[in-house]
Amino acid sequence: MEKQVRYAELNDIPDIILLLKAVGKLHGENRGDIFRGNALRYSESEIKDFIKTKKMNIFVSVNETDQVTGMVFCEFKTVEADNVLLSSKTLWVADACVKEHCRGEGYGKTLINHVKAFAKENNCSRIELNVWDFNKGARGFYSGLGMREQRHIMEFIVD
Q: Which residues of 64-86 are buried (b: 16+ CB within 10 A; e: fewer)?
């Protein structure tokens, strides 16, 4: 059966929270100087609000039994033209994750293809997201789908 992507529903929240915890754990383990270990980026009530109001679009990939296999949080960002920048509308991917046991099965690609179609339907000029340097798997995944690096943020750790 073809993989499906749909808007998240309230009954998906436990799976979404598990996925967000996995994201938080990965970031905490690799950059504990910046991230709290197992902190959730969004509370359950914030996720409920996003689902009800679509202030943040949450899509989930599901298998043939409608079990959540992955998720993506995305929102529109607009820039008004100024002396330097042109006006634009971008779809910002705030969080994305596929359950570990489902990776390599095409759910991530299916989610991103859905996000691309959603961005096009909503007249976005591009899709943007951040990937931390330590997350080699995600960097390779997005590059393999044709995303390219837009900029680099450099840092000095000051002791």
A: eeeebbbbbbbeeeeeeeeeeee
pTM to 2 decimal places: 0.94
Q: Identify whether the C-beta of residue 55 lies closer than 8 Å to the C-beta of residue 76.
A: no
Q: How do residues 20-40 score in pLDDT, each as one tens digit?
A: 999 999 999 999 999 987 789
Tokens 């383990």 correspond to 29
Distance CA 56, CA 51 (A): 7
Q: Which two tokens stand for residue 95?
A: 């969080």
Per-residue tokens: 74: 């995305």
Phi, psi of 46 (to 5 degrees): -65, -40
Q: Can you read off the two tokens belonging to residue 42? A: 């969004």
